[in-house]
Amino acid sequence: MKIIKSLLVLSCTILLISCFGFSNKKQGNQQAMYTPQEDTKVAYFASGCFWCVEAIFESVNGVEEAVSGYAGGNTLNPTYEKIGTGRTGHAEAVAVYYNPKKVSFETLVTVFFGSHDPTTVNGQHPDYGTQYRSIAFYKTAEEKQIIENAINKLNKDVYNGKIVTEVKELKRFYKAEEYHQDFEKRNPNQSYVKAVSVPRLNRFKKKFPELLKDTH
């Protein structure tokens, strides 16, 4: 009985500090509507919990907005609950709206690879499953080449050929439920945000201070 209780406590603890451990749809205020500018472009990435990834890209100079969602699979109209099963084929992903005059797609790819471990199969600690896998999406042949060049260089210089990131053509991006948008910003005291998301963001900021927005 003690063993069973210990396992239950451990399971609850993991759930509380996982990206899938929060489903209170009433948490936070409604996100203001974002309207892209005429010359805005969009890039798409998946690298673990989208709460973390969204916050990282929104800290980058030239990024106008980052939207959490789902991409990479074939299931129609995926939801957070369906994604959590790991059987939809989709990953938690982020659509990054950016001004190409201020930040290039190549720099966004640098942000992507520099803010997670691309050698981890199906996950980023503490979140594991196909829905948390690493994917760099492309819409054009040029974007695909930029991603592949980055992988080749990193495999040679840093990761010794161990990168498992998928390079995948974007077929469709599904925006996630409203309560996921700007989650870290709107829920600073949530357990996962404090334990995982904020530390991940701070590690990125320390690594790439030259890419950050001027907050003054």
Summarize the structure in words.
It contains 7 helices and 8 strands. It is α+β, with helices and mostly antiparallel strands. It has a single domain (2-211), classed as Peptide Methionine Sulfoxide Reductase, Chain A, CATH 3.30.1060.10. The termini are far apart. Helix 2 crosses helix 7 and helix 4 runs parallel beside helix 5 (141-157). It has helices at residues 2-16, 50-58, 80-83, 105-114, 141-157, 183-186, 191-207; strands spanning 41-47, 63-71, 91-98, 123-124, 127-128, 134-138, 166-169, 174-175. The chain is globular and about 35 Å long.
Salient structural properties:
216 residues, alpha+beta, Peptide Methionine Sulfoxide Reductase, Chain A, six-stranded mixed sheet, two-stranded antiparallel ribbon, 18% strand, peptide-methionine (S)-S-oxide reductase activity
Looking at CATH, which topology would you report? Answer: Peptide Methionine Sulfoxide Reductase, Chain A
SSE pattern: HEHEHEHEEEHEEHH
> How far do the termini sit from each other?
56 Å
Number of strands: 8
Proportion in β-strands: 15-25%
Helix-strand blueprint:
Elements: H1 2-16, E1 41-47, H2 50-58, E2 63-71, H3 80-83, E3 91-98, H4 105-114, E4 123-124, E5 127-128, E6 134-138, H5 141-157, E7 166-169, E8 174-175, H6 183-186, H7 191-207
Parallel strand pairs: 6-7
Antiparallel strand pairs: 1-3, 1-6, 2-3, 2-8, 4-5
Helix pairs in contact: 2-7, 4-5
